[in-house]
């Protein structure tokens, strides 16, 4: 291929790269980019901590409080999906060498090593919970799998939470506070609030529909 052909290929590549870069910048301008993603992740994490604490209260009284246990468990699914989505988005952006995410850098090595276990045990915990709900009693194998995944999840999630605990209040409240009257609000605050509120509302509706329709565990 001649020099003119090479120049055409380079020109086409630069054109596509410029288009992609422009689209990425427009998305970042609407969503808050790296900082917006971190705030969404933090807000989802705080909401999950509150719901998980409520779910934990039902465990010692599971015989009497099975209904609330099922309701809160179903309510947790959309917020869990939202948090997995926001962290997965950061993961994908970093490993596809998106410049702002590369500049932010990856999580500490220990947390990156821990992350697959956290994701897998989370999927196992909620997956076996939904399977139990669908299968109905008696489901001894599924009950054992649900309990096993719960203990593994608690062990890994405790480390994960402790590693991020100090930064969560700042991230979760960042869209609702300002350091000064002239400080501009980060783009995408409304979108982040809507995503979190929508996830909680969807989970609440899911739990209400399932319990209203009835379940063989009752």
Descriptive report:
There is one protein chain. The protein has 218 residues and is mostly helical. Helix content is 80%, strand content 0%. It has one domain (37-213). It has eight helices and no strands.
Largest beta-sheet characterization: none
- End-to-end CA span: 73 Å
Q: Give the total of beta strands.
A: 0
What would you call the shape?
globular
Question: Low-confidence parts lasting 5 or more residues at pLDDT below 50?
Answer: 9-18
Question: Strand fraction band?
Answer: under 5%
Q: In oligomeric terms, what are we looking at?
A: single chain
- The radius of gyration over CA amounts to 22 Å
Q: What's the tally of helices?
A: 8
Helix content: over 70%
- Average residue-wise pLDDT: 85
Q: Count structural domains.
A: 1
User: Which structural class do you get from the secondary structure elements?
Assistant: mainly alpha
Compressed to H and E, one letter per element, the order equals HHHHHHHH
Question: What's the SSE blueprint?
Answer:
Blueprint: H1 3-31, H2 33-58, H3 66-95, H4 99-104, H5 109-135, H6 140-164, H7 168-173, H8 189-213
Helix pairs in contact: 1-2, 2-3, 2-8, 3-5, 3-8, 5-6
What tags apply to this protein structure?
single chain; 218 residues; mainly alpha; 80% helix; 0% strand
Compact summary:
The protein has 218 residues and is an all-alpha fold. It has 8 helices and no strands.
